[in-house]
């Protein structure tokens, strides 16, 4: 009997012990995932704070009234456009904004800034844009969002090109943190021979960028494809960029070499470090 009672009792104790374990595990797990979630959220908050600090500082330091301003693409530029809109309201700033993508065009219109275009404003006073990674020479990898072609055209026609980023992007050599490779825009019909040429001449892997929410490859604002070239090691980027541009079918690379004059890096604490290009 006691055996039976014992078994029942023991079974009850065990079940309740298990139940307690489950409760404790869930409590620890949820506390842990809450903690993890909080850690991730606070990390993301820090990154956003850094982006905003860099963007606002660049706009305050480099944009004057009656200027033609190139507006980059991506997420860091959002704070720059918002700061421009604030200055229009606060001080009557007058600027004409040249977009580098459909996204940038939307940002300009949403923030009620004056939209311009290169056919009317072929020479810009300043271009401000983010980057995926920036090395010690201020050589940038751009095009993480597929916009590097128009970005490079706008940056190249501005008197000064200013890069804004959170401090994660500030690296000694390209490829330190950014592992997605150098975006290279290619004419769609040529993507495969270009892929072969890149891998043969420069090594590494050139991967066709596939869309996330649409079947098939990413199609850029210019109607082209993108190869993300995962290079083996850092190199003479001026030489590499020049040689890449000679490959028929390549429209533009995401290597911005000797273009950025100044870079602003924002830390999670909202501090900003400004760096001037060594080649100046
Ligand atoms: O194609 C996108 C552009 O090159 C962006 O400026 C670059 O990817 C940086 O974007 P984010 O400011 O979002 O890091």
From TrEMBL:
Task: List each coiled-coil range.
Answer: none
The pathway entry for this protein reads as:
Carbohydrate degradation; pentose phosphate pathway; D-ribose 5-phosphate from D-ribulose 5-phosphate (non-oxidative stage): step 1/1
- Output the GO biological process annotations, alphabetical, semicolon-separated: pentose-phosphate shunt
Q: Which Gene3D superfamilies match?
A: 3.30.70.260, 3.40.50.1360
The terms under GO molecular function for this entry are:
ribose-5-phosphate isomerase activity
Q: Which Pfam families match?
A: Rib_5-P_isom_A
Tell me which positions the record assigns to the signal sequence: none
Q: Member of which family?
A: Belongs to the ribose 5-phosphate isomerase family.
The answer on whether this UniProt entry bears the keyword Cell membrane reads no
By its UniProt entry, which InterPro entries does this protein fall under? NagB/RpiA_transferase-like, Ribose5P_isomerase_type_A
Enzyme Commission number(s) of this protein: 5.3.1.6
Query: Is the Isomerase keyword given for this protein?
Result: yes
Enzyme class, spelled out:
isomerase
**SUPFAM superfamilies under this entry?**
D-ribose-5-phosphate isomerase (RpiA), lid domain, NagB/RpiA/CoA transferase-like
- Tell me where on the tree of life, at the top rank, the source sits: Eukaryota
Catalytic activity line of the entry: aldehydo-D-ribose 5-phosphate = D-ribulose 5-phosphate
The protein in question is named: ribose-5-phosphate isomerase
Q: Which keywords are on file for this protein?
A: Isomerase
């Amino acid at each position: 009997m006691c055996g039976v009672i014992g078994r029942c009792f023991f079974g009850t104790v065990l079940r309740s012990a298990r139940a307690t374990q489950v409760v404790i595990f869930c409590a620890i797990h949820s506390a842990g995932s809450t903690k993890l979630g909080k850690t991730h959220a606070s990390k993301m908050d820090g990154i956003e704070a850094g982006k905003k600090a860099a963007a606002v500082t660049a706009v305050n330091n480099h944009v004057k009234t009656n200027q033609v301003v190139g507006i980059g693409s991506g997420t860091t530029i959002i704070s720059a456009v918002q700061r421009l809109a604030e200055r229009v309201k606060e001080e009557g700033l007058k600027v004409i904004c040249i977009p580098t993508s459909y996204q940038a065009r939307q940002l300009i219109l949403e923030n009620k800034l004056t939209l311009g275009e290169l056919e009317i404003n072929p020479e810009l006073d300043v271009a401000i844009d983010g980057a995926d990674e920036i090395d010690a020479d201020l050589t940038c990898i751009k095009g993480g969002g597929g916009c590097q072609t128009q970005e490079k055209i706008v940056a190249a026609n501005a008197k000064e090109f200013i890069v804004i980023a959170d401090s994660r992007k500030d690296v000694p050599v390209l490829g330190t943190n950014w592992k997605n490779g150098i975006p290279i825009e290619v004419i769609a019909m040529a993507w495969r021979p270009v892929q072969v040429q890149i891998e043969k001449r420069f090594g590494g892997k050139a991967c066709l960028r596939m869309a996330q929410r649409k079947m098939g490859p990413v199609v850029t604002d210019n109607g082209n494809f993108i190869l993300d070239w995962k290079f083996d090691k850092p190199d003479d980027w001026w030489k590499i960029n020049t040689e890449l541009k000679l490959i028929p079918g390549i429209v533009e690379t995401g290597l911005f070499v000797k273009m950025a004059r100044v870079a602003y890096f924002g830390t999670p604490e909202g501090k900003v470090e400004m760096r001037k290009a060594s080649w100046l």
